[in-house]
């Protein structure tokens, strides 16, 4: 009999985000079912006791190559399906939360996913409003410290698999269109200005496979801060429920599905540049979930 659910991420020197990822998924499915693919970390974040009982697979450090990375992760997650009913892959700054109005836990959600299915999360950037919100305490409940999220099609990722898939670079798409339900992805890259700039310093200075690769992770500090503050300056809405009958959520979800209908043979099966025109206040039922 297989175990119900595994969670996988891949890291290099993620001393801020990895403890958050391990706490979130370890609490949900047990640390023994969490797998960290360590791409040559040197900061101690992937060594005991920091890894909190998770399994660590160490691979040699090499220049960042998203095509190579996705191929390796696709094969690794497929291999885990020999031992698990379902496997989650997310980047280390991405937290999955099934709708608390329907599901008591991530394990309960995964138990309802059909054999051979792949679930695409509804994706959001968690956005700090720097003029109103202080720096994050990464050891505490993040959703109690941040009020605002922004819809992002780039974060609508196929994240929970019950069959082998081949992720495209960036893990945004697979060789099939999106299949949404009530699973949400909260992306933390923009949740804290200071931490975001610190991470940008590392990614800007690490080796990349080509001079063009990873341009969004190598931009100047001022450009990145301006992007975050631009998001923070969007109008805020407090009427969004994130329930299935929410017309605003349905509008953006349908925009993604419509974009998929004309990309049937493309590497990226959805338009990755659909971003909400407002910040939405995070509904209270999510506040104790991450």
- Separation of the first and last Cα atoms: 30 Å
Largest sheet: 11 strands, mixed
Q: Quaternary arrangement of the chains shown?
A: single chain
Please, how many helices?
6
Instruction: Give the topology string: H per helix, E per strand.
Output: EHEEHEEHEEEEHHEHE
As for the number of domains, it is 1
Question: From the alpha-carbon coordinates, what is the Rg to the nearest angstrom?
Answer: 18 Å
The unreliable regions are none
Helix content: 25-40%
Count of beta strands: 11
GO molecular function, one term: transferase activity
Pfam families: Glyco_tranf_2_4 (PF13704)
Keywords: Transferase
Protein name: Glycosyltransferase family 2 protein
Task: Give the SSE map.
Blueprint lengths: L2 E9 L5 H13 L4 E5 L16 E4 L7 H15 L3 E6 L4 E5 L7 H6 L6 E10 L20 E4 L6 E4 L18 E8 L5 H13 L15 H12 L3 E2 L9 H14 L18 E3 L9
Structure description:
The chain is of the alpha/beta class and 290 residues long. The chain has one domain (3-286). The chain is built from six helices and eleven strands. It has helices spanning 17-29, 66-80, 106-111, 193-205, 221-232, 247-260; strands at 3-11, 34-38, 55-58, 84-89, 94-98, 118-127, 148-151, 158-161, 180-187, 236-237, 279-281. Strands 1, 2, 3, 4, 5, 6, 7, 8, 9, 10 and 11 form an eleven-stranded mixed beta sheet that branches. The mean pLDDT is 97.
């Amino acid at each position: 009999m297989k175990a119900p659910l595994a969670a996988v991420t891949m890291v290099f020197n993620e001393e801020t985000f990895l403890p958050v990822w391990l706490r979130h998924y370890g609490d949900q499915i047990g640390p023994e079912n969490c797998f960290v693919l360590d791409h040559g970390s040197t900061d101690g974040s992937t060594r005991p006791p920091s890894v909190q009982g998770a399994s660590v697979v160490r691979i040699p450090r090499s220049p960042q190559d998203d095509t190579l990375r996705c191929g390796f992760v696709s094969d690794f997650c497929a291999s885990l399906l020999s031992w698990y009913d379902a496997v989650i892959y997310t980047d280390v700054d991405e937290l999955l939360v099934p709708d608390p109005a329907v599901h008591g836990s991530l394990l309960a959600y995964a138990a309802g996913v059909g054999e051979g299915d792949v679930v695409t999360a509804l994706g959001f950037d968690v956005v700090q409003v720097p003029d109103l919100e202080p720096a994050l305490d990464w050891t505490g409940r993040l959703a109690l410290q941040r009020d605002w999220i922004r819809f992002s099609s780039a974060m609508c990722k196929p994240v929970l698999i019950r069959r082998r898939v081949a992720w495209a670079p960036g893990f945004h798409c697979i060789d099939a269109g999106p299949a949404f339900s009530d699973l949400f992805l909260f992306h933390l890259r923009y949740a804290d200005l200071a931490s975001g700039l610190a991470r940008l310093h590392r990614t800007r200075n690490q080796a990349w496979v080509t001079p063009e690769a990873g341009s969004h992770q190598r931009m100047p500090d001022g450009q990145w801060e301006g992007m975050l503050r631009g998001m923070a300056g969007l109008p805020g809405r407090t009427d969004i429920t994130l329930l299935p009958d929410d017309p605003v959520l349905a509008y953006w979800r349908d925009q993604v599905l419509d974009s998929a209908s004309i990309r049937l043979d493309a590497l990226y099966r959805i338009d990755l540049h659909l971003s909400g025109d407002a910040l939405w206040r995070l509904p209270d039922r999510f506040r104790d979930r991450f």
